[in-house]
Specification:
Helices cover 59% and strands 0% of the residues. With 138 residues, the protein is mostly helical.
Length: 138
């Protein structure tokens, strides 16, 4: 009998639960303390725990969460089902120029001051563009 595939929501919820339990045992932190130290709001932590998300968690928040708790970011990314790029060769910045408008979009997605609703619209549009067939000049 094969085990059912674990969704990224379930895997990440387990990762977050272990991190919270460890922070409580090792540091005496409550969820409020955790939110203060990691920069991730209590409501976000509870959504992560419940697996209550459809778009991936903001990677900047995941990184902040891991950094504050001395956890490897790669473990969080693995739980989310994202590829481990930590050992992949990185190209020098001058080899892969990013156009200014793309850089602005990436900055908005990483900016904590940008409302979540706007980030959601940006991601929806990017998903649409990514799935759209490429029209060839013929």
């Amino acid at each position: 009998m094969t085990s059912p595939e674990v969704s990224p929501q379930m895997a990440f919820a387990r990762f977050v639960r272990r991190a919270i339990d460890d922070a409580r045992e090792e540091r005496g932190w409550t969820v409020s303390d955790l939110a203060t130290h990691t920069g991730v709001g209590r409501s976000t932590v509870f959504r992560w725990l419940a697996g209550d998300w459809h778009d991936y968690p903001e990677l900047a928040k995941v990184r902040g969460f891991c950094t504050a708790l001395d956890l490897p970011v790669t473990a969080a990314f693995r739980a989310l089902g994202l590829p481990d790029t930590s050992h992949a060769p990185r190209r020098p910045a001058d080899e892969t120029p990013v156009e200014a408008d793309v850089r602005v979009i990436l900055q908005r997605l990483a900016d904590p001051a940008v409302p979540a609703e706007e980030k959601h619209h940006i991601r929806d549009l990017l998903r649409y563009l990514a799935r759209r067939p490429i029209r060839r000049a013929g």
